[in-house]
Structures are given as C-alpha cells and as structure tokens.
Fold this sequence. Notes:
By secondary structure, the protein is an alpha/beta fold. 41% of the residues lie in helices and 20% in strands.
Amino acid sequence: xxxxxxxxxxxxxxxxxxxxxxxxxxxxxxxxxxxxxxxxxxxxxxxxxxxxxxxxxxxxxxxxxxxxxxxxxxxxxxxxxxxxxxxxxxxxxxxxxxxxxxxxxxxxxxxxxxxxxxxxxxxxxxxxxxxxxxxxxxxxxxxxxxxxxxxxxxxxxxxxxxxxxxxxxxxxxxxxxxxxxxxxxxxxxxxxxxxxxxxxxxxxxxxxxxxxxxxxxxxxxxxxxxxxxxxxxxxxxxxxxxxxxxxxxxxxxxxxxxxxxxxxxxxxxxxxxxxxxxxxxxxxxxxxxxxxxxxxxxxxxxxxxxxxxxxxxxxxxxxxxxxxxxxxxxxxxxxxxxxxxxxxxxxx
Length: 348
C-alpha cells in the first residue's frame, strides 16, 4: 500500500483523487491536508512514498512548501508530484532540477489522467524507490517499464522518464525537448506500426480523410489480441550517456530502407529520420521490433562512483536469499515482484 499525502483545497483535484483512491483501493491510501504544518508533521511521523502539492491553490503557499522539501535531507526518499496551472508554470518549475520531483503536470492534464497516472505508478512501485536510491548510491540509473498498448499511457511513461533524467541533471533544457520528442516518436511507432499493425498507406489514407490517428489506434485496440500487447521501455543512465531500448510485440518492418532515405516533407513518416538526427547510435534488431538509441548526458550529470552494478534475472520461484544470509551486496528490484516466505506463509 502506497501512502499519498495531498496538499490541496481545489475541489476538482480532490474529487479525482478520491475517485482514484476508490478505484485503486488496494494500491493507494490518500490523506488530504489544508495546512503545510499538518502535512509536514504527518510525513515525518509516517512512512509516506508520495507527496502531491497543488500549486493552483494559492492560499496554501504550495511553492514555499515545495522549496522547504528540497532543502531538507529528511525528505530524500519522498517522491513529489506537483500540479500547476499551466505549461508556463510547469516549465518554470522544471528550470531548477530536483531529483525527488516525480511529475509536474498541469491541472487540466491531471484532472483528465489522474487515475491512469496513479495506476501506472502502482504498476511501477520499484521506480519510486530505485530512482532515488540509485542517485544516492551514485550508481547508474537503470530500469524497465512495461507499457499498455495505449496512447495516453506512453505519454505518461515518457513524462516520468524525461522528468527523472532532467531532474537528476543528466539532461539539460535543450536536451529535454530532444529526448521528449525522440521518445514519443519511437513509442508512437511501436504503438501504431508495431502492436497495432497500422501500415504507412493505411495511416496516409486515414489522415487524408481528416481523421485523428488516435481514433484508428482506439479502433484497433477493440481487438483483445491487439489490446493485450505491451511496449517495453528500458533505460540505463550512465555518467556520460543514457541508453534506451523500446520493444513492441509487432511483426517488425524494413528499417534499413527507412534509415537509408533522406527526410522528405510529407504528411507523416519522418519520425525515424528526425529521431536519428536528435540522438546517438539509433539502430534496430534484425526483425525491426526493437529500437536502440543513446543520448549524450549534460556536463552536470551526476558522477558515478559504483560502476560494477550487475543485473541478474531470476526465474519464477527461484530463491534469491534466505534470512540471516551474510552478504556484502545491496540489491534492489528493477522489474517484477518478490515473494517473502515467513513462517510457512507467503507474503508479497
């Protein structure tokens, strides 16, 4: 159960959060506050994974509370989600990197995607902890997301990843735009042409008919077979560069013919070539359903002092360790879940 403390007096925001908590009652417990003093006291006395601060409620002085969290090491493992009035306020807030910032989202987008956003967080609880732990331990930031076959979901996953890399200063403001664009292009390709199997000609005809591509994606997702497909997003943030891999469950495509072409202005079909110019080392697997690319980190990227991080994949029911086992290692979960056997009873 993830505890979310909420500073807000905005009725619409409180309403969608209450709906979310009812829908995801097995994942989240929410606590509302109208006083920064009361919320701070609660966080200090209870283990709280997420703090949501509503900047649109000007009477609460959420900005001051946010800045106080930034300057207090007690909150080093608190994830902060901020709701702002508009894009201008969001961009201004993100000008000053803060590793604990989970997402900064406009009120309009939050009201529309509140439950969806928290559902994604419930499916990726390891990310909430790992992104902060990896920063504190000065190791490379590594992780995996398993994304549903949905256009709104890929927007949220891209925002989580870009916010993380920006606020750990691996990506500067110019690089943020390039990374956001590149991720969305590759994720949309995985969704449209990979999992939904929308061909170039089908998309051309659909757009020329005045339709929105999201309508065609929604139509394809009516098929249970297509709707059940996933998009895998893997990242590994080193000291000087960050690597990405995006995998879909489609049949692949002739990527060589695309990469050999020059960019030609058209209704669509320029995403791969545009992305190639914005990133380093863009390549595909032979089949064409996995794309790999890298970005060069900013000069302010955190120094990595522990460089022998190893990834181990365990099979189902394989034992990881036993109680009182001596070890000099520290381990953390990147993807999946762990079952703990206590007194012959399994507890997840």
